Amino acid sequence: MGGLSSGSLKASSRVVERVINRIRAWQLFILSLALRLAADWLHPKWGVYPETLRAGFTLAKRGYLGDPFPLPTGPTAHVSPAYPVLVAAVRALTPSDNTCLQVLSIILAVVTAGNIAALIPVSRALGLPRGSGTNAATIVAIPCYVWIELSPNDATSLSAAAQRGSEGRTDGH
Fold this sequence. Notes:
The protein is an all-alpha fold. It has one domain (25-167). The chain is built from 7 helices and no strands. It has helices at residues 6-22, 25-42, 51-62, 82-93, 97-125, 132-148, 156-167. The protein is elongated, with a radius of gyration of 20 Å. The N and C termini lie far apart (60 Å).
């Protein structure tokens, strides 16, 4: 039984490198979005809501940022207001908590896909070798986001988008 020769490994490596270098941000966005939406659809829905989601529902239903815990505690400074405000806005436009969660899942899927796709132009702006952004996105980011971000319960993808925006500003402006 013959093994792989070093020549065939080098040729395979060059083919893989050419394919990686041809991947564009929009292609990675579509792939990431499809994977994330599929994972959201297959993932069981959460039964216990974290503080940010509860505070957002309270803001939508009662008009104040508060009650982030299972027992009503009143107004709070326990959670940052950005994600609860988004939750409240979506909840105000939807007929139920479940519909709100589905819409938030879609919003966060789009943001997550954007974060992953942004690795390509950010890596180029930072002067990293060609293909490094694609490698990072396909090898590291997609599995991490699929495993971690499968619910509308957390705003990590929004935080990552803010971070990605600040990374893109390398020109001093």
